[in-house]
Write a sequence for this structure.
C-alpha cells in the first residue's frame, strides 16, 4: 500500500485529523490523529497527541515531545511498530508487536495489544478423564 498523504518539513498541522491511505510526517502533527494505513514519522518529523494507526508504524523521528510525560502522547497501532536507530519515543506506544533496531530510543512505556480470543484460565478448563489401557477394567 502506497502512502498518499504527506506533511512536509517546515509544515505544522494540529487538530482533529484523519488521513486515508497512510501518512508520511516530515514536519509536525499534533492533536487527535487517525491514520487509515501506515504511519511513517521521518527523521526530523514530530507527532504528538492521541494517535490511532490502522496499519504499521515506522518511527525514524520523534513520537511525543522531548520533555513531556508518556501520557501526553499515546499511539495505538493495529499492526507492527518499528523503531529505527534514529527514532525517539517519549510517548506511550501500543502495538500488536514491536521491533527495535540498535540505537532506538524508547523512553516511554510499550504495551502489547492482545487479541480478543484470550486463552482460557486454568480453572475454566474441564478436567479430562484419565486414559485407560486397552483391556483394563474400570
Amino acid at each position: 500500500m502506497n502512502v498518499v498523504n504527506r506533511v512536509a518539513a517546515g509544515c505544522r498541522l494540529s487538530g482533529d485529523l484523519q488521513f486515508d491511505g497512510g501518512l508520511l510526517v516530515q514536519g509536525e502533527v499534533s492533536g487527535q490523529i487517525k491514520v487509515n494505513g501506515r504511519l511513517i514519522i521521518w527523521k526530523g518529523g514530530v507527532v504528538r497527541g492521541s494517535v490511532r494507526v490502522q496499519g504499521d508504524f515506522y518511527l525514524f523521528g520523534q513520537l511525543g515531545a522531548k520533555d513531556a510525560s508518556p501520557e501526553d502522547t499515546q499511539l495505538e497501532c493495529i499492526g507492527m511498530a518499528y523503531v529505527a536507530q534514529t527514532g525517539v519515543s517519549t510517548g506511550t506506544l501500543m502495538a500488536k508487536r514491536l521491533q527495535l533496531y540498535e540505537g532506538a530510543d524508547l523512553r516511554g512505556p510499550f504495551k502489547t495489544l492482545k487479541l480478543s480470543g484470550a486463552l482460557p484460565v486454568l480453572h475454566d478448563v474441564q478436567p479430562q478423564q484419565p486414559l485407560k489401557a486397552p483391556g483394563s477394567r474400570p
In short: The first strand starts at residue 5 and ends at 7. The chain has a mean pLDDT of 87. The chain has no helices and 13 strands.
